[in-house]
Design goal:
heterodimer, A: alpha/beta, Rossmann fold, 2 domains, eight-stranded mixed sheet, four-stranded antiparallel sheet, B: alpha/beta, six-stranded mixed sheet, disordered N terminus
């Protein structure tokens, strides 16, 4: 098991090793799912941090653990089958995983909010959109019905829903896909969170609507100096909005870097291969470069580096030793035995 | 226009050699192609909207496909792009003859597929096959892979005699890159990408001439998507297939398509070669669609001109008068509400349904 803290380099780069307190910090998180077929090791030591006013993109394919990390932060992980086997989550330096249920509710109310992928199933179909926004205001802020309704309309206007005063009385099924996602965002912003976790917020949407929603999220995030964790598999969306990127594979962060460096000069073979396998809008390709094979089963993660069976530069050491996080530049980390060679293009 | 200075066309030669599309009364008729395998003309599909519990009455129609014409050449890939609700999947259903069209015709090798019945229809089905989007729901979980891929042979017994079937199925599995020994496994034992390969093997079983691919890679992860796209390309070369490739991902469509049709609210708004649509789009919707695609390069962030469309797609029950895109279009004038723009060649050597069509390069 690797002991290197993957986000340590960021702190060292800041010159402040111990006292730096991040807005949100995930430390060495381990999560397992106990299933009928065995123990699935879903998270295997995930660490990242988020500061106010920045956007961290967590990039990964299905099963890489990006959503489970978010669910663990929010305290909405299904347990069972989920088991938190180790690690910590700090919000303003306060440990969340050991906090009481009461305290976590308070933090979910005002500190950390989440936007889900599928707005239709995340919204309650038997209550109006307005009611679902007002509910939290009345419970948490003790607002009257009238004030809460006024605030709900303001929030719908903030997310640019036309005719907000009429829309607030409608039910989710009367909204289009893009509008529902906007309503979800309005709901998540109701209590002015400091951290917004957006889990695939635009995956179910069309490109023109996706552009609208990403613009909106970015605008709100900058205005309010919120920290945003954007969970996605879309390399295009990430390139448009992320400040920093964490790439996940088989429950580990395999690379972490600022957005510009990661795309210009990837430091992990997986990132490199992902970027290589993208069809491009500006040219008609012949054959795409592919990553051979499949992502590993989490019930049976390969020994050594989990990417080794699919990696073009795998050596014996990759099959036996889990690579530690290596610093490959300012605030950049890669979990590859040959990280230096990868990043220098060798 | 003899002035050399105002000629900004990127590739004037290209524009010159292309034959102008014949224009018949504002009515789009595709330029004659050498060897069309399918010819679709004025295809419409309207779904009635009914109200009432006991006595249902029709209060309107969802105009899912509303007058579409195109040709599909032998061995080519025609990409169809558009956002959800534009009718691209209905188009696939109608062309498969799974839905009866409201009007129009589709000729397969010169014969209208909507006039066919019985044995003739069955023979046609050998020639046009479909690959569906969701590899999880499009395979019967209670059937083995061998049964799924071999089922077409049960109906079309002439293709493979009984004793031959297992061998045929194993060959097909091999062709799509699956292990032929897995013939007795069930769909749940495969990953998403592998299941999509099973769906492709099933479509290939009867050696069709045309395969309609309805969002075949959109449910797959990036690393798997590339594998399946390469497979589709290889199979086309190997078997001389024609594809109608329906997708919402514009990069995926460009990668595989020879020609591309852009749909909006049941109509084709622009059609042309892959190069014409992506490099020299003339319809505002095509331009907006292309410019909204996120580019996987942070270096161009903030430097690209992105056309932001306002609002949502209008309801296909009651589409806007005139040009259907006018409610979201920044160029809209009075004429756009009054008169529906025909899909004709306007400026760039390929048909575009916009009164104010002009070339604009939006892909960086």
């Amino acid at each position: 098991m690797s002991t290197v803290d993957i986000e340590g380099a960021g702190e060292r780069a800041g010159g402040d090793l111990l006292t730096t307190e991040h807005l949100l910090e995930v430390k060495d998180l381990y999560v397992e799912f106990h299933t009928r077929d065995g123990v699935a090791k879903v998270l295997n030591g995930v660490s990242y941090h988020l500061d106010a006013g920045e956007t961290l993109a967590v990039l990964g394919e299905s099963g890489s653990g990006k959503s489970v990390t978010a669910q663990t932060i929010m305290g909405i992980l299904d347990m069972p089958p989920g088991v938190i086997a180790g690690g910590n989550v700090y919000f303003h330096g306060e440990e969340l995983l050991s906090a009481s249920a009461q305290r976590r509710r308070e933090l979910r109310a005002s500190g950390i909010a989440m936007v889900f992928q599928d707005a239709l199933s995340a919204l309650n179909p038997v209550f109006t959109v307005g009611f679902q926004i007002e509910e939290q205001l009345r419970m948490r802020r003790g607002m009257s019905r009238r004030d809460a309704r006024k605030r709900a309309v303001e929030l719908l206007e903030l997310v640019k829903i036309p005719n907000a005063a009429r829309r607030v009385r409608q039910y989710p099924h009367e909204f289009s896909g893009g509008m529902r996602q906007r309503a979800m965002i309005a709901m998540s912003l109701a209590l002015d969170p400091e951290v917004l976790i957006a889990d695939e917020p635009t995956t179910a949407l069309d490109v023109t609507v996706q552009a609208q929603i990403m613009d909106l999220l970015k605008e709100i995030q900058v205005d309010r100096r919120m920290g945003m964790i954007l969970i996605t598999h879309d390399l295009g969306v990430v390139a448009e909005v992320a400040d920093r990127i964490a790439v996940m594979y088989a429950g580990r962060i395999v690379e972490q870097a600022d957005a510009a460096s990661l795309y210009r000069n990837p430091g992990h073979p997986y990132t490199l291969a992902l970027l290589d396998s993208l069809p491009r809008l500006d040219q008609r390709g012949q054959t795409l470069n592919t990553i051979k094979g499949l992502p590993p089963s989490l019930l049976n993660i390969p020994s050594g580096c989990p990417f080794n069976p699919r990696c073009t530069r795998a050596q014996d050491v990759c099959r036996t030793e889990v690579p530690a996080a290596v610093e490959i530049g300012l605030g950049r980390l890669s979990r590859c035995h040959f990280a230096e060679e990868v990043v220098s293009g060798g | 226009m003899a002035d050399a200075e105002i000629d900004h066309t990127d590739d004037p030669q290209q524009a010159d050699v292309r034959p102008a599309a014949p224009q018949v009364d504002d009515h789009y008729v595709p330029a004659p192609v050498s060897d069309p395998i399918m010819q679709v003309r004025d295809l419409t599909k309207h779904f009635p909207v009914k109200v009432g519990v006991l006595f249902k009455r029709t209060v309107g129609h969802v105009k899912a496909v509303d007058g579409i014409s195109f040709d599909l050449q032998r061995g080519e890939t025609l990409g169809v792009v558009g956002e959800s609700g534009c009718g691209k999947s209905t188009l696939a259903q109608v062309l498969m003859n799974l839905e009866k069209p409201t009007g129009g015709s589709a000729l397969f090798e010169g014969k209208n597929i909507f006039d066919m019945h019985g044995a003739e229809m069955r023979r046609l089905r050998r020639n046009i096959q479909i690959v569906l989007q969701d590899p999880y729901t499009s395979l019967n979980p209670r059937m083995t892979v061998g049964d799924i891929v071999g089922e077409p042979f049960e109906i079309h017994t002439e293709v493979a005699p009984k004793g031959d079937r297992q061998k045929k199925v194993q060959e097909l599995l091999d062709v799509v890159g699956l292990n032929p020994e897995h013939i007795n496994r069930y769909p749940h034992q495969f990953s998403g990408g592998q299941r999509q390969r099973i769906g492709i093997a099933r479509a290939l079983a009867l050696r069709p001439k045309v395969i309609i691919c309805d969002e075949p890679v959109s449910a797959l992860d990036v690393s798997i998507q590339a594998q399946v796209m390469n497979l589709l390309g290889d199979l086309q070369d190997e078997f001389g297939l024609s594809y109608i490739f329906i997708a919402h991902d514009l990069s995926v469509v460009r990668h595989l398509s020879d020609r591309v049709a852009v749909m909006y609210l049941g109509k084709i708004v622009e059609i042309g070669t892959e190069e014409q649509i992506y490099e020299r789009p003339t319809h505002p919707y095509t331009q907006a669609l292309l410019s909204a695609v996120p580019v996987a390069d942070p270096a161009v962030r903030g430097q690209r001109q992105i056309i932001r469309l306002e609002g949502d797609v209008p309801s296909p029950v009651d589409p806007p008068s005139g040009c259907r895109f006018r409610t979201r279009c920044w160029k809209a004038q009075e004429i756009c509400a009054a008169e529906e723009p025909a899909l004709v060649d306007r400026v760039a050597g390929h048909p575009s349904a916009c009164h104010f069509a002009e070339e604009k390069s939006v892909v960086p």
